[in-house]
């Protein structure tokens, strides 16, 4: 794996030792098409605005002829550039994955550039995951967008309109009416406030190689369960086995894709994914990429807009 650095703190060039698809690898970090902290440009570049341990930073990543070039701005620029390979899956081991189903084999073959990213940042994935608890994706995306626009800060550098998420103290001081304005009920708001009050301890989970221990660390916070912990660690730790349980749709998608039948519970999904032990999250990502969905038999889940209550 070759890498060079020029203009420390500003630009880094890095050449991965295998195919890398930027959109597939970094796509899970986006929280809706209007995410103020994430942007995919028409030229194929990916922009991220993050709150790092060194402060806010903006990262722009481009890919050409197998080489990666990243430019960063702000106090967090050096931190972001130092961790560029990890972010892009350098610590991921896709070779450990062995397809056990024809569908999975075919999707795996078609997407050799898929890597599991590792941000090294817990709160920036934990808070959106809490916002997504038991609501529609559109509701959660809207809440994240409004909260960042209202309480975040402008992202460093030239990315007009991008925002860095608030620091922990700012999250903790958001008044109840502002949560309500964003459509966030009291339970989810209280979970976020409890989490940011112990932000330093939660961020330590990003450096824990034992993902079960990291999940246990997150779940010490009331309101954070297995679903939220898995959704967070998939991104912060690049955890290949952090399968999401408690999801409304995933068991049905996995069951239908692998058997042609609907599976409505986590137990059935985990049984089907047992051959992928150690790589169940990667297997689920590939199954979702296949696009094979069960026929809809019930009305779409209706949004519950608490702002009109």
Keywords summarizing the entry:
309 residues; alpha+beta; TATA-Binding Protein; Endonuclease III, domain 1; 6-stranded antiparallel sheet; two-stranded antiparallel sheet; 15 helices; 8 strands; 40% helix; globular; Alkylbase_DNA_Glycosylase/TA; DNA damage; DNA_glycosylase
CATH architecture of the domain at 123-208 and 215-223: Orthogonal Bundle
How much of the polypeptide forms β-strand, as a percent range? 5-15%
* Poorly predicted parts: 1-9
The strand count comes to: 8
Strands across the major sheet, in which order?
1-2-6-5-4-3
Name of the CATH first level of the domain at 123-208 and 215-223: Mainly Alpha
Query: Could you give the distance between the termini?
Result: 56 Å
Mean pLDDT: 93
Order of helices and strands: EEHEEEEHHHHHEEHHHHHHHHH
Keywords: DNA damage, DNA repair
Protein name: DNA-3-methyladenine glycosylase 2 family protein
InterPro entries: Alkylbase_DNA_Glycosylase/TA, DNA_glycosylase
